[in-house]
Each structure stands twice: as C-alpha cells, then as structure tokens.
C-alpha cells in the first residue's frame, strides 16, 4: 500500500490518527505530512467522539475521517469497527493524538509495535491523567511530553522521544499544559517521522 513520494526511495507509510477532541497534535501531524520528505501520509483520522473538533478540521482539509461512538456496544464491537475503518484505509501505523480511551490488549496485539502515543509528561513519571497538576504538586523543576510505543501497559511502552519545559513560579496546570503543548506539536511530528524512517 503506500503512495510513492517524489524523489524518495521508499513509499510513504499510511498513517491512521486516533483523536477524541481538539486534535491540535493531529493537526500538527497533518501539516507536517505536506513536506515532500515526510515519510508518512495521513490516510485516516478517526474519533470515538463524532463531535470532536479535530474531525471537522481534518475533513475541511480533505483528510478522510471516521467517527464511531462506543456508546451502547461492547468494547470489542467498537474496536472492531475502528479496526475495520483503519484497515479499509490501508493504514500501516497508528498515532494516538489525544485519544482518551484505553485500547484493549487484543487491539494492541493486532497492531503490535505499530501504535505510538503522545503523553503529556516525562515518562516514566506521571502515567495516566492530571500529569501537569501532579508535576507542579511534586515541586518538579521541569515537565514535558513523551512519544512512546503503545503496549498493553498504560503509558508504558518504549519512549521514542521527549521534550522538556521548565515549570515556572506561579504556573498552573493550564499554563503549564499550554507550554508543554507547543512542544508536543514539534516533538510528535519529528519523532514519528524518525520512527517511521527506521
Ligand atoms: C495533549 O496534551 C496530549 O498529550 C494529551 O491530550 C492532549 C490532547 O490535545 N494526551 C493524553 O493525555 C493521553 N493520555 P490535542 O487534542 O489538542 O492534541
């Protein structure tokens, strides 16, 4: 599968991006894909929330989108629909970008080694939620974000890249989140590209 890129020796990888909301990391990945030497093309943006703002953003730019709410169905059935949409789009690797739903072990196994996630902490610190508030409460001098391989362990797979920012006096979880997010946008596109080139 894969579309040839002008002048490049290997075909572009077909990337699926899963989101749940705003989608600013997804947008940074879509924008980075416009570069001729980018090793991926965005084949599908999918969401568990049909109303996710990121879905509309992607659709407006001509990126194929798919929405499936998990409400009213077993998790396995919901994930089978996501899986089918990804495969129908010829997706070869998946980037989670603010996708706030735990993937089942079965789904992770079917895409073993081909799913990455961005998490707003310096892993292995602060897996899970409320990462920025926890970093401030702990008195940490710095915070950041990590891109990692997704395994069955929550936020536990191999870390591929990190970005660091200082925690400043007076920082709130929101002000720190905004500073980290700006770094996330640079980190994700670069780390993903390096990983896919390997
Ligand atoms: C980002 O900060 C991302 O790191 C975080 O959610 C935000 C999504 O923003 N992800 C997680 O917390 C995953 N556990 P975005 O929708 O604008 O990319």
TrEMBL record:
Gene Ontology cellular-component terms listed: cytosol
Function, as annotated: Catalyzes the transfer of a formyl group from 10-formyltetrahydrofolate to 5-phospho-ribosyl-glycinamide (GAR), producing 5-phospho-ribosyl-N-formylglycinamide (FGAR) and tetrahydrofolate.
Pathway: Purine metabolism; IMP biosynthesis via de novo pathway; N(2)-formyl-N(1)-(5-phospho-D-ribosyl)glycinamide from N(1)-(5-phospho-D-ribosyl)glycinamide (10-formyl THF route): step 1/1
Molecular function terms, GO-annotated: phosphoribosylglycinamide formyltransferase activity
Keywords: Purine biosynthesis, Transferase
Binding site for (6R)-10-formyltetrahydrofolate: 75, 100-103, 117
EC number from the UniProt entry: 2.1.2.2
SUPFAM superfamilies xref list: Formyltransferase
Pfam family of the protein (one): Formyl_trans_N
Family according to the record: Belongs to the GART family.
Descriptive protein name: Phosphoribosylglycinamide formyltransferase
Biological processes, Gene Ontology terms: 'de novo' IMP biosynthetic process
Protein's organism: Sphingomonas trueperi
Sequence ranges assigned to domain Formyl transferase N-terminal in this UniProt record: 14-191
Binding residues annotated for N(1)-(5-phospho-beta-D-ribosyl)glycinamide, in chain numbering: 23-25
Family matches, as InterPro entries: Formyl_transf_N (IPR002376), Formyl_transf_N_sf (IPR036477), GART (IPR004607)
Record: active site: 119 (proton donor)
Listed NCBIfam families: PurN
Gene: purN
PANTHER family in UniProt: PHOSPHORIBOSYLGLYCINAMIDE FORMYLTRANSFERASE
Site (Raises pKa of active site His): 155
């Amino acid at each position: 599968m894969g579309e040839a890129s002008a002048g490049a020796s290997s075909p572009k990888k077909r990337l699926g991006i899963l989101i749940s909301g705003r989608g600013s990391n997804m947008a940074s990945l879509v924008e980075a894909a416009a570069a001729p030497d980018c090793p991926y093309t965005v084949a599908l943006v999918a969401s568990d929330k049909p109303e996710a703002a990121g879905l509309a953003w992607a659709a407006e730019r001509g990126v194929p989108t798919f929405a499936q709410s998990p409400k009213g169905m077993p998790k396995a059935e919901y994930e089978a629909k996501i899986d089918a949409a990804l495969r129908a789009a010829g997706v070869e690797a998946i980037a989670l970008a603010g996708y706030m739903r735990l993937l089942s072990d079965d789904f992770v196994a079917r895409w073993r080694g081909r799913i990455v996630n961005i998490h707003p902490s310096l892993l292995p610190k602060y897996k899970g939620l409320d990462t920025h508030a926890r970093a401030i409460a702990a008195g940490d001098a710095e915070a950041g974000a990590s891109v990692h391989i997704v395994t069955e362990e929550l936020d536990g797979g191999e870390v591929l890249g990190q970005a660091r920012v200082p925690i400043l006096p007076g920082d709130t979880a929101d002000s720190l989140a905004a500073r980290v997010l700006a770094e996330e946008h640079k980190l994700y596109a670069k780390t993903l590209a390096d990983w896919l080139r390997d």
